[in-house]
């Protein structure tokens, strides 16, 4: 597995969004992060069952979407086969025997989540 070099200023701007693979944190710092067996991918796995261009994760205005690139063995999120899927922090991405956790610690997202949680409470009748 490997990752291409990215300028330092891009890393610091989105350091809260990353993948965890075998105890290694890989920051998602590009608009499109490609995953596969071919060396031109951003994240490369040397596994025969993985397609050359297996999947990609697209940053869509702070939301992350995983796209399967018509891979042979498929792409799974939380055990379900997907063609594309909006990723949530803690989602488990699987490519056969490769398991990857998606983590999004973006403060903007956390504020939205807090606001949503608070809005679920019923107003008390006084």
Molecular structure report:
By secondary structure, this protein is an alpha+beta fold. Helix content is 15%, strand content 40%. The protein is built from two helices and twelve strands. The strands form two sheets. Strands 1-5-4-6-7-10 form a six-stranded mixed β-sheet, with no helix packed on it. Strands 3-2-12-11-8-9 form a six-stranded antiparallel β-sheet, with no helix packed on it. Strand 11 and strand 12 form a beta hairpin. The protein starts with a strand and ends in a 7-residue tail after the last helix. The N terminus is likely disordered.
Cα Rg: 17 Å
| Major β-sheet strand ordering | 1-5-4-6-7-10
- Rough outline: globular
For the secondary structure, the number of strands is 12
| Helix and strand sequence | EHEEEEEEEEEEEH
Give the fraction of residues assigned to helices: 10-25%
- Helix count? 2
Oligomeric form: single chain
Give the structure's gist in a few sentences.
With 126 residues, the chain is an alpha+beta fold. It contains two helices and twelve strands, in the order E-H-E-E-E-E-E-E-E-E-E-E-E-H.
């Amino acid at each position: 597995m490997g990752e291409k070099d990215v300028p330092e200023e891009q890393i610091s701007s989105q350091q809260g969004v990353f993948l965890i693979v075998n105890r290694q944190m890989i920051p998602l710092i590009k608009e499109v992060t490609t995953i596969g067996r071919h060396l031109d991918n951003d994240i490369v796995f040397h596994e025969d069952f993985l397609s050359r261009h297996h999947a990609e994760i697209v940053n869509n205005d702070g939301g992350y979407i995983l796209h399967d690139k018509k891979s042979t063995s498929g792409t799974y999120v939380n055990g379900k086969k997907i063609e594309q899927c909006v990723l949530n922090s803690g989602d488990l991405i699987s490519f056969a025997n490769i398991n990857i956790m998606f983590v999004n610690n973006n403060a903007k997202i956390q504020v939205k989540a807090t606001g949503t949680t608070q809005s679920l409470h019923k107003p008390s009748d006084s």
